[in-house]
Amino acid sequence: MEGIIGGLFSSVLPVNLLYMFIGTFAGIIIGALPGLGATTGIALLIPLTYGMEPVHALLLAAGIYQGAMYGGSITSVLLGIPGTPTNTATCFDGFPMSQKGQSKEALGASLTASAIGGFFSCIALMFLTPLMSKIVLYFGAPEQFMMAMVGLGVIAASSHESLSKGLLVGFLGLVIATIGGDPMTGYDRFTFGIMYLDDGIDFMIIAVGIFGFSQAIAMAEEAQSISGDTKLRGRLMDGVKACFTHWKITLRCSFLGVLLGVTPGAGGSVAAMLAYSTTQATEKDKDTFGTGNIKGVIAPEAANNATIGSAIIPTLAFGIPGSATSAVLMGLLMIHNIVPGPRLFLDAGSTLYTFFWGLVWTCFAIVIIGLPLLRFFAKVTVVPYQILVPSIVILCALGTYSVRGYMFDVLLMFAFGILGYYLKKAHYPMVCFILGLILGPTVESNLWRSLIIYGDLSFIWTRPITLALAILLAAVIIIPIVKPHFAKKKGEEK
Amino acid sequence: MKKALAMLLVLVSAALAVYAGGSEEDLSKWPSKPIHIINQSAAGSGPDLFIRQMQPVLQKELGTSLVLESKEGSGGKLACDYVWNSNPDGYTILAHSSPLTTVTQISKDCEYSIKDMKHIASIDATPYAVIVRADSPIKSVADLIEYCKTNNASNANSGIGGAMFLQSRIMADALGIDYAEVPYNGGQPCTLAVMNGDVTFTVTSFDVVMNNNQVRALCILADERVAAIPDVPTIVEEGYTFPFLTMRRGLLAPAETPDEIVQKLVDAFEVALNDPSFTDYAAANGINLDLIFGEEYQALDAQIYDEIMQFVDYL
User: Domain containing B143: what range?
Assistant: First the structure.
């Protein structure tokens, strides 16, 4: 407790606040550029922090982390290109809002939802680390398998328009996820002897192609700016307010994010996708999702920022990072001779609590820095297509190239763009595709592991968490199918 | 017409973006431009952090800036191929992680050998250790053998045909034990698998126990104990000996790199690795430094290659 109060005072020192703001500003820009994310941002920061006070270095990193996690949504909303993998789900409704001229409202909502989600996560990190680190110890291969199955089950609820279309693209996602070395035997699958495919296709390459490049094709075809003939309407504040009007969604998705952030095998992208698809499934106006529903912006953005604090928990408690970003963050800690693990809170207490509070303040910093920036950014949607289309294509190419540094990936991204263009034209629910794609590897490898360890499927009913998740899965599949029938009966009774 | 023009715009900008990818500059006075260090693992992983820690000193010594690039994939082969095929002008060097890169080269029938590359500097020698959960009834190597005989034991490895997998098999043969082999994506998930009870044990770099009280090291797979955890015995003390694969991170340059350039790199790394900014960091984090430079390092790496070659049937 002393540490927490000491950290609070030290975190509000003007010089510390300055570092936080610089970090946040840099983070927002890094996140907004496709292909660069919090991981790269903090990695680039590391050599710059020698000779710097550890506290200052950590506060810069806190700003970059929070800023980048949010910043990615700016590109998602305005251009339909996910700025980072975690902002993919924001494209579904954020970009259609921009097309309707409501970009300001969407940006306001993603900003506020990110800040609220991040805030809860940092509070959890500060007060619940000992408790939440236990989740890591109970989530083995069988639990991770079942959790991902529940996520796949959501496809049933997300394909409200046509179940067969949803299942089809969900399956396509699963198939594409199998490309690369077999996780169990190491044999190459569907790589056609191309070495670049040995590790499968990076999610970012597919996401940028499917969302970004396909959008550029569509825009060129329509030959008009993003918002077309419609005038820019709405205000940033409308979006801010929406997060509070829909406070149930904001809170629920924040908690989902906090929980999934610490769960092995999940992470920011999975949290955002599940937040989006469960919100879509449970809301009454679910048919308007995908056409520019503000709830579809709030849900994923609250959830992905909510993984920030909780993903750091296993890193600090066991020295095992919960995400790529927390791995680099751990590197930064180690360079400043702060060694993660059980003795951490004793050895580096005050520095650490200052960092925690710093993470809390950066949630406010993204709002303070974000609001004036967004007013300016929102105008991108009225830029003439002759300028915007080539810019988007180049941004897509640069973004994919920066993931691993191979031209092959860029060509692959173009191919996925063309695929995405036709799939969207035929109204296939892309949510289902992305769910299959990101959950496929988790399902497959953890099912195999469980089978090797337990010999048969008994792990489903002999382990309490797995059993509970299995029941949830059954509910997730059955309810969307049964519900319309009940609703009909009710209607008849009336 | 308008549409066709717009489509053309998409194509042209796509082509430009692709074209902008390549282009090399001529070699003049070395170093006259930034040096790229290619890493086979992600930013934030061990070798990446080592170099970032040395970066300020290295840049001062070399008089140019360093660019760290991650080219992940195919068990380190993609990064290695990239450096092997790059201009041997000293501007592209590889962050090498042995035995990972070596094992992959052998198992994937690579057309060239890491032995032929110019070796610059070896940074550390991190031995593997047998790791179990902290509350595991297994307290010694004898317990492990007994447990594997009477129970369904399982072992987590970082991928079939990888270094952890190979070291586990070599050990299993020497101890005469049998267990289920469970592959995970990389080393850290294996430690997690021990923690959450998925598997009985794993064979991984010893430093995972340094800051994690949920796992315990049974023994070190090396001839000598390590200074960071002096209480943990070696498997040799427990009466078993077999070839030990040691994790060794270092830097390599393409085979044709001129010797003068290699020497400049060796000198710069020698200064950076002995600088207090690096040695203090290594001490605080329990990194087992083992500095070997130039041809001496090349000879050692070649010896490791040949040693692993004996086990080619396991891969």
Answer: 127-221
